[in-house]
Amino acid sequence: MTTPLTTDTAVEHLRDRGVLGADVAASATVLDGGVSSATFLVETEGERYVVKQPLPYLSVADVWPARLERAGVEANVLGLFGALTPDHVPRLVDYDPKRFVVTMAAAPPSWVEWRAALLRGAVDPAVGETLGRVLGSWHAATRDDPEVLERFGDLGMFVELRGDPYHRTVAARCPELAGPVLACLDELLAERRCLVHGDFSPKNVLVGADSRVWVLDHEVAHAGNPVFDVAFLLHHLVMKAVHLGARDGAAPPRVHACARAFVDAYAAAGGLATDARSAARHTGALLLARVHGKSRATYLTPDEVSRVSLIGAQGVRGELAGVDDLFGAAVRSDPVD
Question: In this protein, which residues make up the domain named Aminoglycoside phosphotransferase (predicted)?
């Protein structure tokens, strides 16, 4: 068992690793908001670093164990994606394989988490377009690359962090939907076409001026089916449309436009997961996971949970043909049983 870092030991860790000199003044603060890692911001007079150490159990209501070795995956992926799109991921500074600690450059203080911006109703389709272009370029660049498929071929952590707590938990709790939900998981485990991020979510996107973005949290990355990344972002945007639409009827069309910009830019960049109906099915499975699985979307009200559950069921059963149908279902006003 590794010793957990604290605000005091995070600074000492960077000194021990040679990132900070012995005479460099530094302070550390806890970065809140994540459930999978202890994360700290370490600041000196001229530098800012994020120091991240994974938790052996995720901080959720259900018991959710995960291997600490996922930190090594994140470090490796930061190096690879950093070479492909250096402007869209933080720079890897150091990785300590004994303590499973990743150190990376921190974003400028003015940058904001995209999830927080979306929940405030600040929806910028240019961010969706940039994310589609970045994701499409990652998938295209790693397509059928034998070295990548070998290096990231272990699906164990994907199953621990996604397959079990999402699909298999939904199948157990919603047996009437177990068939199509588990069929989605089978597709994800069977097809290995490129390097998949695995957590392509608004909470893992930082946005700066002129819609500049960084994509964070690469620890679930694996050689797999690219539809997972496309569906993962789409399901978050569908939930935001449902949530915002309860207060502002003009918000869902903005989120829809953002999603459309994302999928169009993804396809234009050479993205591999361009089958709209397949993306809708996988989006449906993930929507169900966020209201019935181990990783609940806590900002949804009970009525919104019911709406998301209905959209998820329609999607995973193949009743929705693509992005337009998903967002059409998100704004429907018919009662949910």
Answer: 28-262
